[in-house]
From TrEMBL:
Record organism: Spiroplasma phoeniceum P40
Protein name in UniProt: PD-(D/E)XK endonuclease-like domain-containing protein
Domain of life of the organism encoding this protein: Bacteria
Length: 239
């Protein structure tokens, strides 16, 4: 599910294959923002390798996917004025991911109740959700973008049970990268980002300024990644 306002024109037509998290422009594969940021986070990569067969880790991953899916449904229903709330419980109960149902349902209900309180005014300001963006070099898909005073704000949904300063900083860089893609598509931004932490405690909105330091950090990460991969492709070609 994705939505883009009729008055927004993007430079690139990006195709996103969800199953393998791959981006294509004219059948050419482009790196994703999440992959680029993770590439520079060796601790996270090693942790993921260690935990990939751990049942609790798998359950948390599936829970996050389910919650993201239903947040998308709730947003879609609100924007297009279709009401599927009665079906949410049924859809979850019919899911094969039985172990995550009860916990996911509680969180989805909390988000629905939160969004229902703000949606009448908020949906009028939404300009995009789950819409792939690109600058012709990298691609990414922000969860949600809305206008405040005619300037775009990027929202990223996180379903963390536990988080620390490192996780918050990584999310800030991710949002900074999406903000960069908006600017490359000639969309005015407010240089404000929001991390919506959605869990058993409800919805906590972490609003922050996209500083020059965050922008420099993203630029350094992106350029280093592109340079390293360009050199790798060159070496493979020469061999």
């Amino acid at each position: 599910m994705q939505f883009i306002s009729n008055n927004i024109k993007l430079k690139y037509n990006v195709n996103f294959e969800k199953d393998n998290h791959s981006y294509f422009i004219d059948n050419i594969v482009f790196p994703s923002i999440t992959a680029i940021i993770s590439y520079f986070n060796n601790t996270e990569i090693q942790y993921d390798k260690l935990m990939k067969n751990n049942e609790l880790f798998k359950k948390a991953t599936e829970r996050g996917k389910i919650i993201h899916e239903f947040i998308s449904r709730i947003l879609y229903d609100a924007i297009f004025q279709t009401e599927n709330r009665k079906n949410y419980k049924t859809i979850i109960k019919n899911s094969k991911k039985i172990s995550t149902i009860k916990e996911s349902l509680k969180i989805i209900e909390l988000f629905y109740n939160f969004f229902n309180r703000i949606k009448n005014d908020f949906i009028k300001s939404i300009i995009m959700f789950e819409t792939p963006l690109s600058d012709g070099k990298v691609c990414g898909t922000p969860d949600l973008i809305y206008y405040e005073n005619n300037k775009a704000i990027v929202v990223d949904f996180k379903t963390w049970k536990y988080f620390n300063a490192e996780k918050i900083n990584k999310a800030k860089i991710q949002i900074t990268a999406y903000n960069y893609l908006l600017e490359k598509n000639n969309i005015f931004t407010s240089n404000i980002g929001e991390i919506w932490i959605i869990n058993e405690n409800g919805v906590n909105i972490n609003r922050f300024n996209i500083t020059n330091q965050l922008k420099l950090e993203w630029q350094e990460i992106m350029h280093t990644f592109l340079k390293n991969n360009s050199n790798k492709e060159k070496r493979n070609y020469e061999n």
